[in-house]
Design brief:
Chain lengths: 263, 366
Amino acid sequence: MIEARDVSVSIGGKRIVQNVDFEMRPGELAAIVGPNGSGKTTFLRALAGDLPHSGSITMNGCGISQMKPWESAALRAVLPQQTALSFPFTVREIVKLGMLNGRSGVLAGETERLPDRALARVDLDGFAGRFYQELSGGEQQRVQLARVLCQVWAPVLEGAPRYLFLDEPVSSLDIKHQLIIMNIARDFARRGGCVVAILHDLNLTAMYADRIHVMHHGRLAAAGSPQEVLSDDLIARVFECKLKVGVLPAANIPFVLPQSAGI
Amino acid sequence: MVDRSADGALVMAARRNPDGDRSGRARLAILLLCLLLAATVLISLAYGASDASATAVLSDWLFQAPGDALSARDRLIVYDIRLPRVVLGVLIGAALAVSGAVMQGLFRNPLADPGLVGVSSGASLGAVSVIVLGATSLAPFTAMLGIYALPVAAFGGGLAVTLVLYRVSTRRGQTSVATMLLAGIALGAMAMAFTGLLVFMADDRQLRDLTFWQLGSLAGATWGKIATAGPIIMASLAAAPFLARGLNALALGEASASHLGIPVQRFKYVAIVAVSASVGASVAVSGGIGFVGIVVPHLLRLVIGPDNRYLLPASALLGASLLLLADAVSRTIVAPAELPIGIVTAAVGAPFFLWILLRKRGLIDL
């Protein structure tokens, strides 16, 4: 379980995140949504232990500021928005970096095959020998996800739930791979782990999230189930757009929702 | 983003390794590099202005042949002139190449090199201070440290430059290539200015020492110099394998390295101290020998990939071999005189550096 109490973060004297309370339980997929610059990534970085913050954040009951890097690494993995490399690593070499601290949670005999399984999981079978720098943005993002999955392959290790922090995991993916990645995240949560994902697509969020946290000007504007949170009123206030929830477009305009996917 | 450096060599490398695992090839390369080093050591021992031959040396050494296998004079040449020079060449070649590889990993860019970004200039300033001021204003320092005063001062100079450089060029865990190179130029120029001031103050005897020392040379290698610099270099080289995992993780950026469990802040300081120590010790005994640190890791990355677990030992071996070869060239090309080895490495290394720049021109946001 992750508990954040009264968390504030300042960068360069400017307060980016203010007095956020946040709670997530094992088995949940929590989404953070909000307009650009509302402090979503900064808050996620505070949860990941990257930024000094006021207030308290605990992971499985331990204050994250007191944890050593390798102790945190055994409990949570973080997918950044994008990762550029300056050296010619192969895809396999990158994915294997996820196994650096040796707490993947697979049986000893399966360690060698884990990178291939992780790549197959993100639909990159056969990409192990390719150079990371030669891949498209979406492919690179999925390679990084495979690496992150390797780090916490077992959602529960030695009785303790583990966490995936995903910063815009589907931002540069086509619709098929958006669904694949979100299914991976939901599966991780269903098997006892816990996922926090920053998302922009409200339909995808409504489909997959157990809880939605809406950020606005660095504060938590709303939190709850999709049914509780997604209202015309909130969207107008936070996103400054007059949108109606659940209204179909005019009959001659096609629309495609992820909910209609048969996978 | 497509890396244009993925040219023929790289693409071929990929085809031969469809599963992307280059560790087997890296181990083979390390084995071959061991053989190469053994061969260059033998050549360097056997080859020189005097005619003491390798076979005579080997038979003397292996069979302890009594009598006339090796004359007393030849024995002296081999054991007190050639051998210390070879040992020093191996140590310094390995130290420079490994420092280059570690700095490149730390700064996350293939152009970082102790010589290019002012670390060697800082180390030179430290060393020149001791040479010129050792008997006067720095007398307490030299009296306290004895023969270690020179390498310790060089280490201090190199460390100061590296720390400032890192502070200036790294923001939020990302190093800007342009800022790093420019800051390196500025810091190097500053160190050179102070070095120039000291040279200006030096007397004639000190001047001659300084000139030869600054050009970089393995000439004048003695067991005494090895005793001074050797332990520092060997300690840094021994630390290198423990840096490999962290450097690999750092390739993803500082935040991701920390998420993977690397104590990034502490790791960076250990790496910076190790680099400064080995560069300082090398500069103290052999002056500024440039470009080894950039050429060797770059060549090896083309063949075995950027995994530091293999890159660091391979760099040590290839750096040592190449420096011995460069030394052989510098001893023979204008025989019986001797060219400072720094001239040889710069003559080969500088065009190589330009070649890397040309290939990476589109990639690096200078």
